[in-house]
């Protein structure tokens, strides 16, 4: 296996996500930046090194795209240093069980709901740690139990703004949470 180094293109093994290596720590952790500008830290054995050939087809990462994204981000900062709410990156969390659980894993209705809510809280904590201000939880329509319980748990956090996500992007089965800077960990 080739050791990873700063600047390498990598892709996650179990997800259609990748980026550039920012740092490789001695304890086997690797920090990457996705084309969207998010930073992820994960074990090095969960990523695979991609070739540098820009014509090599990959699921998500293309060197030219990464460079263009970085340039676009720098341009936006120059034009609008204060930023606007529309340009804030969004963490999308799909709470559908088929997206969260391995194939064939069976849970009771109570266990499934509890698992979905725990996942939502873990992702919210991740967003706060990584200073991501907008999180969209995709819960679907169904009978509305997950949505109601999710809203109940989210209301426990003081200062969060909770609203229906943009219908044009998510339909009516998603909730958007805005996390003010003062709540960031």
Question: What do you see in this structure?
Answer:
There is one protein chain. The chain has helices at residues 63-79, 97-100, 109-129, 145-154, 167-170, and strands spanning 9-12, 18-24, 29-33, 39-43, 47-49, 90-94, 134-138, 161-164, 174-178. It is globular and about 50 Å long. It is of the alpha+beta class and 185 residues long. The chain folds into two domains: 9-79, SH3 type barrels (Roll), CATH 2.30.30; 88-183, Ribosomal Protein S8, Chain: A, domain 1. The strands form two sheets. The protein has a five-stranded antiparallel beta sheet with strand order 4-3-2-1-5, with no helix packed on it. A four-stranded mixed beta sheet has the order 6-7-9-8, with helices on one face. Helix 3 runs parallel beside helix 4. It starts with 8 loop residues before the first strand and ends in a 7-residue tail after the last strand.
Number of contiguous helices: 5
Shape: globular
Count of structural domains = 2
What is the CATH topology of the largest domain?
A: Ribosomal Protein S8, Chain: A, domain 1
* Total count of strands: 9
Structural Rg = 18 Å
- Provide the residue-averaged pLDDT: 80
- Quickly name the level 1 CATH class of the largest domain: Alpha Beta
User: Biggest sheet: strands, sense, closure?
Assistant: 5 strands, antiparallel
Low-confidence stretches: 55-61
Please state the second-level CATH architecture of the largest domain.
2-Layer Sandwich
Major sheet strand order: 4-3-2-1-5
């Amino acid at each position: 296996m080739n050791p990873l180094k700063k600047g390498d293109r990598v892709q996650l093994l179990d997800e259609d996500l990748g980026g550039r290596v920012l740092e490789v720590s001695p304890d086997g952790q690797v920090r990457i930046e996705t084309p969207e500008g998010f930073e992820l830290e994960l074990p090095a054995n969960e990523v695979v090194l991609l070739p540098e050939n820009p014509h090599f087809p990959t699921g998500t990462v293309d060197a030219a795209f990464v460079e263009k994204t970085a340039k676009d981000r720098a341009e936006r900062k120059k034009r609008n240093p204060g930023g606007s709410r529309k340009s804030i990156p969004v963490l999308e969390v799909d709470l559908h069980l088929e997206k969260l659980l391995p194939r064939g894993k069976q849970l009771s209705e109570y266990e499934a709901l509890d698992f979905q809510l725990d996942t939502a809280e873990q992702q919210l904590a991740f967003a706060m740690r990584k200073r991501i201000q907008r999180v969209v939880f995709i819960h679907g329509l169904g009978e509305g139990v997950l949505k109601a319980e999710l809203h109940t748990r989210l209301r426990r956090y003081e200062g969060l703004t909770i609203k229906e996500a943009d219908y044009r992007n998510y339909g009516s089965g998603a909730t958007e949470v805005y996390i003010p800077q003062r709540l960031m960990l």
